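FAQ: What does a ligand-bound record look like?

Like this one, built around zinc ion:
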Amino acid sequence: MSRSRSGLAAIALVALFSGSINHAEEPNPNDFTFDEFLIAPVRVHLMSAKGVPEWETTLSEKDLARVLTKVNRVWSQAGVCFYIESLVREEAANQDLSSELKSQSDLRWLLLLRPDSSKSEHQFHLYYIKRMPVNGIYFREAIFVKDTASLRNVEGGIDEPLPRVSSHELGHALSLPHRQATTNLMASGTTGTRLNQQEIDQARKAARRFEWIQTAPDILKRANELYEAEKMTEARKLYEALGGLPVKSEAVERAKNRAAE
Ligand SMILES: [Zn+2]
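The answer part, i.e. the structure of the complex:
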């Protein structure tokens, strides 16, 4: 009796396990082409704060290049690529915020740290600060990520927290809600990076609604125009983004060559 019961339990467990693998968490079979890739600009803000050391990031530009490369590995499963439109080092505004405000559970006060001069409507904004009460947080205006983020490891998860937290918050920016399957990108506090088909479709649909997120062919056209106009610094950013796309394409090869000029 007990033996057959445990046997049944084992079968049920196997069914449950394979069910979850076959369903939501299967690496998705999409193979996005060059023409399908959506390219989104982000402005990276490395914050300093003379009066509030806990806000001052110690991340370097090299760190951010690595983080973005990993973010793009995560988001390639949805055919989305982010590139650094600009990276600014800047002193946080409003460093004299009251401790009453800073202790509120609503973290919208973080938005007060944004200097006006680097605000803009035409890209996502990622602010990196040393410490805050959560790993990362998304607001429509801006995303905040803390240097010292830490996550719970899950099977197949990413090898460091910052790209995961950045990717997760960008997921919110592309309309995705939380989904607490631990290996999922939208689970809270884990190293999971997967998206299911429904999330991929939803994120791509949301991305297409931003007029400043363009397809790879449109970005290539803009890069070529900038190149012809001898605006090499701007052209190079776009060629680098295109050259990093994980697709086999002549356009990608040409972009790589142009980026190296
Ligand atoms: Zn979240």
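Follow-up question: can I read anything off the structure? Yes, for example: The longest strand covers residues 80-91.
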